[in-house]
Amino acid sequence: MKKSIAVLGLGRFGKSVITELHECGADLLIADDDEEMIQQYADMASYAVSADLSDPEAIKKLGIGNMDAVVVSMGSSLEASIMCVMVAKELGVPKIIAKVSSERMGEVLVKIGATSIIYPEQESAYRMAHRLTSDNFLEMFDIDENLCIVHMKVKKEWVGKNLIELNFRSKYDANVVAIKEKEQMISHIDPKRPLSIDAELLIVADRKVVQELED
Fold first, then answer.
1. pTM, to two decimals
2. CATH hierarchy code of domain 4-130
3. Which end of the chain, N or C, is surrounded by fewer C-beta atoms within 10 Å?
4. Angle CA(128)–CA(130)–CA(134) in degrees, nearest 5?
């Protein structure tokens, strides 16, 4: 099922997020006060609009209350970020991710409703996009520009099957390096042991096959 996500603010980070979310198949709403910038990225979104993101009434008119998540990416504009987070919180958006330029700004936005904050130098648009669009992904860690570690829940169709039955390594070209069960991380993996519904996997994979793990 497609995730509906709003990206408010088309600065450098916001544009990267839009590109990655589009690649992940998200249903996008994008907004910025720069009409020219909106037109450049309109083809990637279901709804693209120029709006004053410091005006709460203009933000409400965007319809973000229906979104699965809102990404507030005006890291240099505290006023607009505050307004977007407050309105998203008021409208009941379950995930509100805000890009921030300082720890102090992050503290303020968390207090008024942001569910998580992003420091662009610490989190790539690629990682965030995949976390937002997947029900199973918990976290991603870049090893280098090609490899990453994926921390994910066991998918429903994997429950009760073992890694041999799933032909995991060959099918996904990825390696399960640890399994977490009952708060215990197990690195000595028995490939014949069935996966439980509550298990979490640590997987080393090429970034090119991450989408296959999500699907």
1. 0.68
2. 3.40.50.720
3. N
4. 125
Q: Which residue has the higher pLDDT, 161 or 122?
A: 161
Question: What letters, b where the CB count within 10 A reaches 16 and e where it falls short, cover 180-192?
Answer: beeeeeeeebeee
**Among candidate residues 108, 111, 100, 103, the one with its CA nearest the CA of residue 76:** 100
Residue boundaries of the structural domains of the chain:
4-130, 136-214
Q: Do residues 144 and 174 make contact, with C-beta atoms less than 8 angstroms apart?
A: no
Which pLDDT score is estimated for 181? 84
pLDDT of amino acid 215:
62
Helical H segments across 66-194, by residue range: 78-90, 103-112, 125-133, 168-172
Q: What angle do CA 137, 125, 72 make, to 5 degrees?
A: 100
Residue 82's beta-bridge partner residues?
Answer: none
What 3-state class would DSSP assign to 164? coil
CB 30 within 8 A of CB 21: no
Q: What is the three-class DSSP state of 139?
A: strand
CA dihedral 8, 9, 10, 11 (to 10 degrees): -140
Task: For tokens 């839009």, name the residue.
Answer: 18
Q: Which CATH class is domain 136-214?
A: alpha beta
